[in-house]
Amino acid sequence: MSKSIIQQLLSSAEPSIRYKTRILLLNESKSSAQSKKLRQEIKHSTLVRVLLKNRNAKGQLEPIKHVYRKWQGAHWVVACLADLGYPEGDKDLVPIIDQVLNLWLSPVFVNEVIRDFAQPAYKDEAVPIIQGRARRCASQQGNALFSSLALGFSNERTGQLAALLMKWQWPDGGWNCDRRPSAHHSSFWESLLPLRGLALYAKREDSRDVYKTVKRAAELFLKKKLFKRESNGRVMNEEFLQLHYPHYWRYDILFGLKVMAEAGFIGDERCQDALDILEEKRLPNGGWPAEARFYQNTDEKKSNYDLVDWGGVNKRKCNEWVTVDAFHVLKEAGRLRI
């Protein structure tokens, strides 16, 4: 069954699916002629042209002042390109990468202020430190760090992002933007992307200190088996058990397992329950469905509008984006032979 669905992925109309299948499932080298050719196909694909359709004459993505606009802003577009396998170091992306880094390294998101109360976010022009914890939506810097590195832009500014995330890590290993002084637990939503970004940064820099940060962040998820409460073993959030693509800054077990695989923790026995659930969700044809989505395609003026359909949602139909990620996770966990 695996071989037939793999052949389907290798015949996909999307060059990104074909590329990810070859690299993640069949262990083809990124430097092979076929891989390089596929990455160029990705760059010139209809999907990428749609994602980048709002570029202006300077190569920036509109709306320039709304980099974080969900899901059409530059922040989200570069995150998608990074996950698609877009070619690294492409100069055409420099203006868009600059938009993202200029935002998350601007004073309002870098400077810190000590507070003993929860001031409304829109009134602060710095990162509030309350009860010794930075109240920062670290998924933003984490996503920017991963996207920049994956797209081949490693420089002083990516180092700045990594340093900020390391400094803002909470005692339990994660991050949170909860401004209530009493808040002392990290957020899964705010912590997974910093973990992903720092894990890639650690590999590129071979830094022992960054590895330690990554290990502490991974432990936040592992001690809860990626979806369970420590107190009683119950599911933390039923949405965590549904399969999605893309994930943006949201969380589900597939994304959690994907990051565990990237960071080198998929072999931890505490991933087993989530892996079991993922295997149970496999369809009779060998693929996996998108069971829900974090985007909509009906009104471009509303928030959460994505320019791309991403295969839609159908619990009985294989979604290629979900399927290639599920295969990758299970392969890295030693549960799948191809």
From TrEMBL:
It comes from candidate division WOR_3 bacterium SM23_42. This is Squalene cyclase C-terminal domain-containing protein. SUPFAM superfamilies: Terpenoid cyclases/Protein prenyltransferases. InterPro entries: Terpenoid_cyclase/PrenylTrfase (IPR008930). It comes from the Bacteria.
